[in-house]
Every structure is written in structure tokens, then in C-alpha cells.
Amino acid sequence: MPELPEVEALAAFLQQNAVGRIVTRVDLAAVQAIKTFDPPLSSLGGLEITGAGRYGKFLDLDVSGLHLVVHLARAGWLHWRTGLPPAPPKPGKGPLALRVHLDDGNGFDLTEAGTRKGLAVYVVRDPSEVPGIARLGPDALEVDGETFARLMAGRSGQLKGALTDQTLIAGIGNAYSDEILHAARLSPFKMADRLGDDEVLRLHGAVRATLTDALERQVGQRAATMKGEKRSGLQVHARTGLPCPVCGDTVREVSFADTSLQYCPTCQTGGKPLADRRLSKLLR
């Protein structure tokens, strides 16, 4: 899933390559992707792209005052295209969800792999009209230590869920939450409202350090290379069975119905493996 660093890097890429260009046409290939009808997609035609930014994990393209807002969900991505074909794509064929044509013949595709479709596209006059944006908590890279401590103290749930709750803190997803907890040496199942002062400081520092490092590696990359750059920097996420690069212990996994998390027992849980929540009581 694209998270804060990747979406910020995509916005920076579009700032360099799309801002100043005129949208000549927008082709919708997956009807379920569009979540708004007023203004229509066609209203973007003939307008200049004047800015690109981010709200949490939402990508925002300012098109002369209208906003093309995209949530890439779990398996969505943006692909920059040079020399787009003039013929419109056939709806429902392949992973393509949306295609944006620009006046220089280039443009970009929004695609989504797999059968579970969650990619969402909105055309709005103000980004706050998007329900997911209206509900966002403070940005993960902007929240200060005092606010972060207050948010954790008021959350009666596990750290993994707290970090990925966009209404609490915006921008962190499954991968970077694993990385943050590993860097902070904290169990994903520890309760957020039971953190000691030192643990809160470590966690807040890990949020900033992990996301800042990822962002520095991502910005300046071409859209096509960002996913690989993300994978290359991961310490525990998606590394089940491999040695932890910090201590050498084997990275373990806990699976859920539709996702999983990875962690290092030595670094995070005092050497104790966490039980799969589907099978037995969680170890904290």
C-alpha cells in the first residue's frame, strides 16, 4: 500500500512533470473507481494542472481550482506514460482504472492490481469534501511530541492499530507501522494508553525518523522505481523468515484475515513470539 513517503514522492514527481500542463482528456476505465459525479470528470478537460500535494495517503492534483483526489488503496499505483495512445481504453479490461491525457502527449495511468478493488477517485471543489480527508488526524510528519503523547494516552487499543488509524494520525500504513515499531523496540500488541514516558518518546522519534528516511530515499525517484526503493529500505516488514538486520534473530509474522504484520522477537517482545490472534490469546 502506498503510504506517506510514496504519496509525497508521487506529488513531488507530478509537480515536476505535470504542473503547468493542460488536461486534454480523462478516460475512466473502471467505473467503480470514481466516487463523485459533480463536478464530472469531463470538467477537467481544458484546465491547467496548477499544483500537486498530499493529505495523509490521499494524492491531490489541483486542476485550476478543481481537485482530482486519489486514494491508491492497497494495490493501486500511478504510472507516468510518454506518448499515450489516442484511442480510449476499453472499460473493465486489465488493471487500468483511470487515464489522464496532457497537452504534450504524455500523461499518467492509475492502475490497481488484483481482484479486490479499493482505488478511489474524487473530483471536488475542495479536498475537504472527500470524506476520508475530512476525517484525517494530524499528519504523521507534523504532529509534535506533546500532541503525539496525548493521542496515544487517549487510545485504548494496540499500537499497531493506533499507528494505522488515519483518524488518529494520518499517513502511516501497514509497512511503515511495522518499521516504526521495530525502530522503537516496541511490541505491536502493546496497548497505546499504557506506554511509559520513555516509550512515547522512542515511538514519536521512530515515526519521524522512519518516515523522514523513507521520504528522502523516495523523493526524486521516478514513479516506476518508488516501489523497489521502498522494499529496499525495509528492516522487518515483508521479511518473514529472514534475519533481523539489527540483532540477527529471525523475523516473525502474525497473520490476520486479510493482512499480516512482521516483527523481531529479540528487538521488540523480549524474545517471546507473539501468538496468532486467530488461534490464541495475544501475548503483550
Automatic annotation (TrEMBL):
InterPro entries in the cross-refs: FPG_cat, FPG_N, H2TH_FPG, Ribosomal_uS13-like_H2TH, Znf_DNA_glyclase/AP_lyase, Znf_FPG/IleRS
Catalytic activity from the UniProt record: Hydrolysis of DNA containing ring-opened 7-methylguanine residues, releasing 2,6-diamino-4-hydroxy-5-(N-methyl)formamidopyrimidine
PROSITE patterns reported for this sequence: FPG_CAT, ZF_FPG_2
Keyword tags: DNA damage, DNA repair, DNA-binding, Glycosidase, Hydrolase, Lyase, Metal-binding, Multifunctional enzyme, Zinc, Zinc-finger
Keyword Membrane attached: no
Family annotation (Pfam families): Fapy_DNA_glyco (PF01149), H2TH (PF06831), zf-FPG_IleRS (PF06827)
Record GO biological process: base-excision repair
Cofactor needs: Zn(2+)
Residues covered by the Formamidopyrimidine-DNA glycosylase catalytic domain: 2-119
SMART domains: Fapy_DNA_glyco, H2TH
Domain FPG-type: from-to ranges: 235-269
Gene Ontology terms for molecular function: 8-oxo-7,8-dihydroguanine DNA N-glycosylase activity; damaged DNA binding; DNA-(apurinic or apyrimidinic site) endonuclease activity; lyase activity; zinc ion binding
Family listed: Belongs to the FPG family.
PANTHER family assigned: FORMAMIDOPYRIMIDINE-DNA GLYCOSYLASE
Protein name: Formamidopyrimidine-DNA glycosylase
Gene source species: Geodermatophilus ruber
